[in-house]
């Protein structure tokens, strides 16, 4: 299990849950799967590659639904490669294409308006926790691309005074991701007995966001950043930046 977790090889635990040693790592398995598929798509022209990726993922999900492979009993490989969550890969490709088409980075006013619009969508996402199951799932599926677009358009010029804090959170995002379950779990153990249910869910979500962010920032400052400094490749290859600097700009690109 230790080796499979570190090599991003998906496997089921004793309860047939797709979970490596560190629970949140299951998403990294899907992430590595996407990187592998995308790397293969780079072998062909971009338009063909992106269309091929989208078609492949959609076909995988459809095959899994048709053959009943979305049950853990069919085995980890078939379950993994046909999981419905793969649709987010397709939505991400779509968001990328839309952002490129709209040239969001060319107009600061447009970026600001889009940022405000997507901030409202984020608020709608918090409110969605009070909705019944099917409505919640549908709204989350619709909002996910909006969050991606928010990250793509919220450049420092649109954030103003909040930019430094946003950059720090961005730097610590991986630490936040790896440690958030250690914060959300204990908070949930306090929230569930309270009996507030979905009514108090928005407050619970915001408390988790703040607490998990603070924990992740501490982890980044005292664990991740020191490790990055130790394993900084440029420190061991000091000649590389110098050779690059001597080349003309077009060659550096």
Index terms:
single chain, 253 residues, mainly alpha, globular
Give a brief description.
The chain has helices at residues 2-6, 26-41, 46-67, 76-81, 87-102, 108-127, 133-153, 156-159, 163-171, 173-191, 201-230, 233-236, 239-245, 249-252. With 253 residues, it is mostly helical. 11% of the residues are buried.
Report on the architecture of this protein:
This protein is an all-alpha fold. The chain contains 14 helices and no strands. The longest helix is centred in the last third of the chain and has 30 residues, at 201-230. The chain is globular and about 50 Å long.
Helical content class: over 70%
Give me the number of helical elements.
14
Mean pLDDT: 81
Could you tell me the strand content as a percent range? under 5%
Please provide the count of β strands. 0
Instruction: Identify the overall geometry.
Output: globular
Note the main sheet: none
Radius of gyration: 21 Å
Poorly predicted ranges: 241-245, 247-253
Structural class: mainly alpha
Encode the helix/strand succession as letters: HHHHHHHHHHHHHH
Distance, first to last CA = 41 Å
């Amino acid at each position: 299990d230790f080796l499979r977790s570190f090599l991003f090889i998906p496997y089921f635990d004793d309860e047939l849950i797709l979970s490596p040693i560190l629970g949140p790592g299951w998403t990294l398995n899907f992430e590595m799967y996407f990187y592998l598929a995308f790397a293969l798509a780079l072998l062909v022209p971009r338009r063909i590659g992106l269309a091929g990726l989208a078609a492949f993922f959609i076909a995988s999900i459809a095959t899994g639904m048709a053959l009943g492979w979305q049950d853990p009993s069919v085995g980890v490989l078939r379950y993994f490669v046909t999981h419905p969550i793969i649709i987010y890969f397709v939505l991400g490709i779509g968001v990328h294409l839309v952002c490129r088409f709209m040239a969001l980075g060319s107009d600061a006013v447009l970026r600001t308006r889009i940022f405000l619009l997507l901030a409202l969508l984020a608020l709608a996402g918090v409110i969605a926790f009070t909705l019944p199951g099917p409505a919640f799932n549908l709204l989350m599926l619709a909002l996910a691309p909006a969050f991606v677009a928010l990250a793509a358009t919220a450049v420092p010029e649109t954030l103003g005074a909040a930019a430094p804090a946003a950059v720090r959170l961005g730097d610590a995002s991986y630490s936040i991701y790896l440690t958030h379950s250690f914060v959300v779990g204990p908070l949930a153990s306090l929230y569930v007995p309270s009996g507030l249910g979905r009514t108090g869910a928005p407050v619970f979500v915001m408390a988790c966001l703040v607490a998990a962010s603070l924990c992740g920032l501490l982890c980044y400052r005292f664990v991740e950043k020191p490790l990055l400094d130790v394993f900084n490749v440029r420190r061991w290859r000091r000649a590389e930046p110098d050779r690059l600097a001597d080349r003309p700009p077009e060659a550096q690109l």
